[in-house]
Design brief:
Radius of gyration of chain B: 31 Å
Number of helices of chain B: 6
Order of helices and strands of chain A: HHEHHHHHEHHEEEHHHHHHHEEHHHH
Distance between the termini of chain B: 83 Å
Distance between the termini of chain A: 70 Å
Oligomer: heterodimer
Largest sheet of chain B: 3 strands, antiparallel
Shape of chain B: elongated
Strand order of the largest sheet of chain B: 2-5-7
Number of helices of chain A: 20
Radius of gyration of chain A: 29 Å
Largest interface: A-B, 54 and 50 residues
Shape of chain A: globular
Structural class of chain B: alpha+beta
Strand content of chain A: 5-15%
Structural class of chain A: mainly alpha
Order of helices and strands of chain B: HHHEHEEEEHEEH
Number of strands of chain B: 7
Helix content of chain A: 55-70%
Strand content of chain B: 5-15%
Chain lengths: 605, 237
C-alpha cells in the first residue's frame, strides 16, 4: 500500500498524469465551449431577432421528481450551513471569517429570488398571497436596487453601530453571524420551497437546461444518422477528411497557456517535486527551480505550431471537396484551399510584428511579456485587427464562408457529407473559433494576466507612486489567472459570433482582393512601422525608453479604469426604461391573440 | 452633385420612349472614406447588433420580453412554435370539404352535379338517387318517411378525391343549395395510402364546420313549410 502511495505521489507518475489532465482539460474546454457556442448562437440570436431559441430538446420529468431535484440541493445546502454554524458555535474566528460571507450570500440569494418572483408576478399575475405581496413591492428592477442597498447596509451598519458605541465589536460580529446564518437558511428554504411548490403542481415538467440539451440532442442525432458515402467518391480520402479537419482545430489549443506557470521545488536529483509549491511565475517572480506550465504542449516552436496546423486544416477541406465526386464539393474545396492559403500569408505576416516586439515565438513567454509591459492590443493595435480578420477567414465562417456558400454551391466542400462526419466539419468550425480566440487572447489581450495583478498580489503603481498594494495567496492568483483566460476567450468567441450575426458574406473576388491587396500590404506596413519604432526605442535616448514604460503603465491604468467603469455602466444601462412594454408585438401575433391565442384558436394550421 | 442630377433628369425623362415614362434618378450611395474603408461601418453594424442583443436581454431579464427558450410556448414571441402553437387561419380559409345537413340530418345536396361540373380538377364524383315513393332511401335509412319523396334527388354516392382537389373553392361557389362548404378550418391530413384520401359521403357529412356546426345559417324550406314556393313535381306554376 505504501509503495502504491509513493508511486502516486512520485513525479514519475505525476508528470505524465498532470500532462494527461492538462490535455484533457484543454480538449474538453475547446469541445465544450464549441458546444455552448452553438447554443449561444441560437439562443441569443433568438434574443436579437425576437424569435424562439433552442427549445425543442427536453427531458420530461414528473412534477414531483422535478420539484425534488430543484429543492433537494438547496435543502442540503441549508442543512450544511446550519450544521457548520452549530458545530462552530463557540469559535469566534469562524464567526469573523464567515459571518459577512453568509450575510452577503443570504442577501444576494434573497433579492435574486424576490426579483425572479416579481418578474413572474408582473407577467402572469400573483398565484397566492405571498406572490401578491412581492408583486406589490414593485418590478424586478426595484427589487434589484433594494438588494444593492441591502448589500451596502450589511457592510456599513455594523461598522456604524460599533463606531457610535451602540454595541461592542464582539457583539457586532455575533449579530452579523447570527443574521447571516438565519437569512441564508431562510432564503435558501423559501426560494426552494417556492420553486418546489410551483413545480410539484405541474404534471410533467420539461427540463431543457435553458436550451443546453438542444446541442446535446443534435450531437446524438448526428451520431445515429446514416453514413452516406458517394458511390464514385474516394472512400479513403472521403473518410479521412473530417478527421484531419477536426483534429487540426482541436490540437491548436495545445500551445496556448491557460494560466501562469506554477513554480515547484526540486528534489535532490533535480526532478520536479509537486509537494513544494513555490508560487506562480508572473510579474516580479520567476521560477527558480522547476516549473509546470499550464499549457498542454510546452513547445519551443510555439506560435509556428498554430500555423502548421492551420495548413493541415486546409488539407482537410480540400480533400473533402476532392473526394466527394461532386462538382459543388470540388468548387467548395478549391475555394477553401485558395482562401485559407491566401489568409495564412496575412496571418503569418501579422504575427511577425508581435514576434518582433515580444522577442519570442513561445506563447507563454509572449503572455509574460505582456504581463510585464503592456497588452498586445496597445502594442500592436493594427496587428490585432488584421489578425482577427484573417483568423475568421481561416475558420471559414461568416462573412468569409465562401467555401460553404449555401446560396451558390449547396454546402460547398461538405455537400456530400451526412451524419457524424458532417457534424465534425460543422463542429470543427466552432472549435476553431475557440482556438483562434484563445490564441488571440494570448497574443493581444494578455492571456491569463489581469492589470495590476503580480505574482504576489495586487499592486497599483504609477511610476514610483504606489496607490494600492495587497498580498494574495499564489494558489488563488493561479486560479484567478485561469478564470481570466477563460473569460477573455469566451468574450472573444462572443465577438466572433456577433460578427457572424452582423455581416453578410463577401463575394469571391472581394475576398481575394481584401486578402491580397489590402490585408497583406497592411501587415507588411505593420512590420515596417514596428521595426522603425523598435529601432528608435533601442538606439534612442533614455527618455524615450522611460516614456514608453510610462505609456505602458498608463495603458494598464486605462484597463483598470475600464474595469471599474463596467459595473457602473451596467447599473446605468439597467436604469434606462425597457423598450418593450407590450408582450404582443406584431400584427400576426395580435390577430392570433384576438382569436384566443395561438393554442386555443378554432381554425388552426 | 445634386445639381448634376437635376440637369440629367430632364433630358432623361424626355428620352424615355413614346410613353414618356416619368421617373426620378436614384442618388448614388454615399461613398465617404468611412464607408470605403469598411471597418468603421462594420464596427457600427456590430455595435447595432450588440445593442439589440443587450437591450432585448435586459427586457427579458426585467420580464417584458419572453425568454426564447423557457417561454417560447407563451404568446409574445413572433416565431410560432409549431405544433404547440398554431397560427390561426383567416376566416375564409378553404379547408377540407364538408357536406352540410338539413335539420333531420339528411344532406342538403340535391345531386345537381353543379359542383362536379365546375370542378377544374375533376375530383368530385356524384351518383344521383331519387326520393321515390313515400319512404325515403339512403338519406335517413331504409323505410323512413320523408316529405321530399317524389320530387327531389339526393346523392347516393358523393365522393371527393382530396388528393386531386386543388382547393380552389369553385364547388362551393357553384352549389345552389349551400350543400358543400370548405369552412372546416382543417387542412387536408396526410395518410398512408391513396385510398384513404377518397372521402365518401358519410365522412363528408360527419365533418363539422369551424364551430362544430353541421347546419348552415341559410334556411332550407321543405314542402309544407311557410314560405315554401310550393313548386314540386305535382304542383307547379
Amino acid at each position: 500500500m505504501k509503495d502504491v502511495m509513493d508511486f502516486i505521489t512520485s513525479s514519475t507518475f505525476l508528470l505524465p498524469f498532470w500532462g494527461f489532465v492538462k490535455a484533457l482539460a484543454a480538449g474538453m474546454f475547446g469541445l465544450n465551449v464549441g458546444v455552448v457556442l452553438t447554443w449561444v448562437e441560437r439562443r441569443m440570436r433568438g434574443m436579437v431577432q425576437d424569435s424562439i431559441g433552442p427549445n425543442r430538446a427536453a427531458i420530461p420529468l414528473p412534477g414531483f421528481v422535478a420539484a425534488g431535484a430543484a429543492t433537494g440541493p438547496a435543502i442540503l445546502l441549508a442543512l450544511g450551513v446550519g450544521a457548520a454554524a452549530y458545530l462552530n458555535w463557540e469559535d469566534a474566528q469562524f464567526f469573523r471569517d464567515w459571518g459577512m460571507v453568509f450575510l452577503q450570500a443570504g442577501i444576494f440569494l434573497g433579492w435574486m429570488t424576490t426579483a425572479l418572483i416579481a418578474r413572474v408576478v408582473a407577467k402572469r399575475g400573483a398565484a397566492n398571497e405571498a406572490e401578491k405581496a412581492i408583486g406589490d413591492l414593485g418590478g424586478p428592477r426595484t427589487v434589484f436596487y433594494f438588494g444593492l442597498l441591502a448589500h451596502a447596509a450589511a457592510v456599513l451598519l455594523p461598522e456604524l453601530a460599533v463606531g457610535l458605541r451602540l454595541i461592542t465589536a464582539e457583539q457586532s460580529v455575533q449579530m452579523v453571524f447570527g443574521a447571516g446564518v438565519a437569512l441564508l437558511i431562510f432564503a435558501l428554504l423559501a426560494g426552494a420551497g417556492h420553486v418546489g411548490a410551483n413545480l410539484a403542481k405541474e404534471k410533467t415538467v420539461r427540463v431543457t437546461l435553458l436550451g443546453l440539451l438542444h446541442p446535446a440532442a443534435d450531437g446524438l442525432k448526428t451520431a445515429f444518422k446514416a453514413d452516406f458515402i458517394p458511390e464514385k467518391g474516394d472512400w479513403l480520402l472521403f473518410n479521412l477528411a473530417p478527421w484531419i479537419s477536426s483534429f487540426a482545430t482541436i490540437v491548436v489549443i495545445g500551445v496556448v497557456p491557460f494560466g501562469p506557470s506554477l513554480c515547484f521545488g526540486q528534489d535532490a536529483s533535480g526532478v520536479i517535486d509537486f509537494g513544494r509549491f513555490q508560487g506562480i511565475e508572473s510579474v516580479g517572480h520567476a521560477c527558480r527551480s522547476a516549473k509546470m506550465s499550464l499549457q498542454v504542449a510546452d513547445l519551443n516552436v510555439g506560435i509556428l505550431y498554430y500555423f502548421a496546423l492551420g495548413g493541415v486544416g486546409i488539407v482537410g477541406a480540400a480533400l473533402a471537396g476532392w473526394a466527394s465526386d461532386n462538382k459543388f464539393s470540388l468548387l467548395g474545396g478549391l475555394r477553401a484551399a485558395s482562401q485559407m492559403i491566401s489568409y495564412e500569408v496575412t496571418l503569418g505576416l501579422t504575427v511577425i510584428g508581435c514576434l518582433m516586439v515580444y522577442g519570442t515565438v513561445r506563447v507563454d513567454e509572449m503572455v509574460l511579456w505582456q504581463a510585464q509591459n503592456s497588452w498586445g492590443i496597445f502594442v500592436q493595435p493594427l496587428a490585432f485587427f488584421l489578425f482577427i480578420t484573417a483568423a475568421i477567414a481561416e475558420t471559414k465562417r461568416v462573412p468569409f464562408d465562401i467555401p460553404e456558400g449555401e446560396s451558390e454551391i449547396v454546402a460547398g466542400y461538405f455537400t456530400e457529407y451526412a451524419g457524424m462526419k458532417f457534424a465534425m466539419f460543422f463542429f470543427s468550425e466552432f472549435i476553431s473559433v475557440v482556438g483562434s480566440s484563445a490564441l488571440m487572447t494570448s497574443l493581444f489581450f494578455g492571456g491569463w494576466h489581469l492589470p495590476f495583478f503580480t505574482a504576489h498580489g495586487v499592486h497599483v503603481a504609477l511610476g514610483d507612486t504606489v496607490l494600492f498594494s495587497t498580498r494574495l495567496e499564489p494558489s488563488l492568483l493561479a486560479l484567478l489567472g485561469v478564470l481570466t483566460f477563460i473569460g477573455k476567450t469566451i468574450g472573444l468567441c462572443l465577438l466572433q459570433v456577433l460578427i457572424r450575426w452582423t455581416l453578410p458574406r463577401f463575394r469571391y473576388d472581394q475576398l481575394m482582393k481584401l486578402g491580397w491587396r489590402k490585408l497583406l500590404p497592411a501587415s507588411l506596413v505593420n512590420v515596417m512601422v514596428t521595426a522603425v519604432v523598435m529601432l528608435a526605442l533601442q538606439s534612442g535616448s533614455a527618455e524615450l525608453a522611460s516614456g514608453a514604460a510610462y505609456a505602458a503603465q498608463l495603458s494598464m491604468l486605462l484597463l483598470g479604469l475600464l474595469g471599474l467603469a463596467a459595473p457602473i455602466a451596467l447599473v446605468v444601462f439597467l436604469a434606462a426604461p425597457t423598450q418593450k412594454q407590450r408582450l404582443v408585438v406584431n400584427s400576426a401575433a395580435r390577430y392570433a391573440a384576438s382569436l384566443g391565442g395561438t393554442r386555443e384558436a378554432n381554425m388552426e394550421a | 452633385m445634386s445639381v448634376e442630377i437635376e440637369e440629367i433628369k430632364k433630358p432623361l425623362s424626355a428620352a424615355l420612349g413614346p410613353r414618356q415614362v416619368q421617373g426620378t434618378l436614384l442618388e448614388r450611395p454615399v461613398r465617404t472614406a468611412s464607408v470605403q474603408s469598411y471597418i468603421p461601418e462594420m464596427v457600427k453594424g456590430i455595435g447595432q447588433t450588440m445593442g439589440y442583443m443587450l437591450r432585448n436581454t435586459k427586457d427579458m431579464v426585467l420580464g417584458t420580453r419572453n425568454d426564447p427558450v423557457l417561454e417560447s410556448i407563451s404568446d409574445g414571441i413572433n416565431t410560432i412554435s409549431y405544433p404547440e402553437q398554431k397560427r390561426p387561419y383567416p376566416e375564409r380559409f378553404r379547408g377540407v370539404h364538408r357536406l352540410t345537413q338539413r335539420d333531420d340530418g339528411s344532406p342538403r345536396c340535391v345531386a345537381c352535379l353543379c359542383c362536379s361540373t365546375a370542378c377544374p380538377a375533376q375530383c368530385i364524383h356524384i351518383e344521383a338517387g331519387d326520393y321515390s315513393g313515400q319512404t325515403g332511401v339512403g338519406a335517413h335509412g331504409e323505410g323512413k318517411q320523408t316529405s321530399r319523396a317524389g320530387y327531389e334527388k339526393y346523392p347516393k354516392r358523393f365522393v371527393i378525391d382530396e388528393l386531386r382537389c386543388i382547393f380552389c373553392g369553385f364547388c362551393v361557389e357553384a352549389c345552389p343549395c349551400d350543400a358543400i362548404r370548405m369552412d372546416t378550418g382543417i387542412h387536408p391530413s396526410p395518410y398512408d395510402s391513396r385510398d384513404q384520401f377518397i372521402y365518401e359521403k358519410d365522412l363528408l357529412l360527419s365533418i363539422p364546420g369551424r364551430f362544430g356546426e353541421h347546419l348552415t345559417e341559410n334556411p332550407r324550406l321543405e314542402p309544407g313549410d311557410e314560405g315554401h314556393p310550393g313548386v314540386d313535381r305535382e304542383h307547379h306554376h
